[in-house]
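Sequence, please.
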């Protein structure tokens, strides 16, 4: 019987999700991660987690396709039963997402629906489907964005969905409290990853502007984020609930 806690990280094969998965493993937590397209990248993360001495597995998931969720959960629970004799996890980290940079006036309904499906509807219903398999006393961590607090032109749809996630998280905290499940938001600032085509990392003007409006004087990197998510899954963080923790180096304060 496994005694390790288990985290499910969506979008855990790259960028921030990869860092979260590795940070969780360093805390002695086993990890199930999802990937959308790149199985090879996901398998690399699984190998890295295993080299840290933790169990890990990767499953394909389109986090925007609610019709696929039952099949996904069946796969994951079958794996858990085979590995541990139980079908439960302890932590759900809703991280999977895509970028959209489009002025309000130019945002199409199709673009809006894509952002809505992955950043709000998908999170809402995946959490609902996974909830029966989260142990009492577990944690839900939803990933938002600094863009839910401050406005950057071109992010109206994405920022709005992240705002919705922040409200949803407070409802989860309230409604799941009877099971001892805490729900919190981690809201990264601008981070140097391949998210949005490497927009923050590779565009010198964007990177310099972010550094100029950030109190600590630089854009963020994945290592700034993963440890915060992992901390929220520790016993030390047990009394943090219904909170939005922005991890942005003091961006736009």
């Amino acid at each position: 019987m496994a005694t390790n806690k288990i985290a499910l990280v969506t979008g855990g094969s790259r960028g921030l999700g990869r860092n979260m998965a590795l940070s969780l493993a360093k805390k002695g937590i086993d990890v199930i991660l999802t990937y959308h397209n790149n199985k090879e990248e996901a398998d690399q993360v699984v190998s890295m987690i295993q080299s840290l001495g933790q169990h890990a597995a990767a499953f394909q998931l389109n986090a925007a396709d609610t019709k696929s969720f039952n099949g996904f959960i069946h796969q994951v629970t079958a794996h858990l039963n085979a590995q541990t004799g139980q079908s439960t996890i302890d932590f759900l980290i809703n991280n999977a997402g895509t970028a959209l940079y489009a002025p309000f006036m130019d945002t199409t309904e199709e673009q809006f629906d894509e952002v809505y499906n992955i950043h709000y509807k998908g999170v809402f219903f995946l959490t609902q489907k996974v909830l029966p398999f989260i142990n009492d006393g577990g944690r839900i961590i939803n990933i938002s964005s600094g863009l839910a607090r401050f406005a950057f032109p071109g992010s109206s749809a994405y920022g709005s969905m992240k705002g919705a996630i922040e409200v949803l998280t407070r409802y989860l905290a309230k409604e799941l409290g009877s099971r001892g499940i805490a729900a919190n938001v981690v809201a990264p600032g601008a981070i140097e990853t391949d998210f949005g085509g490497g927009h923050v990392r590779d565009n010198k003007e964007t990177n310099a502007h972010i550094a100029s409006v950030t109190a600590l004087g630089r854009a963020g990197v994945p290592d700034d984020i993963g440890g915060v998510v992992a901390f929220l899954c520790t016993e030390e963080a047990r009394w943090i609930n219904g909170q939005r923790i922005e991890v942005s180096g003091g961006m736009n304060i």
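The chain is about 40% helix and 15% strand.
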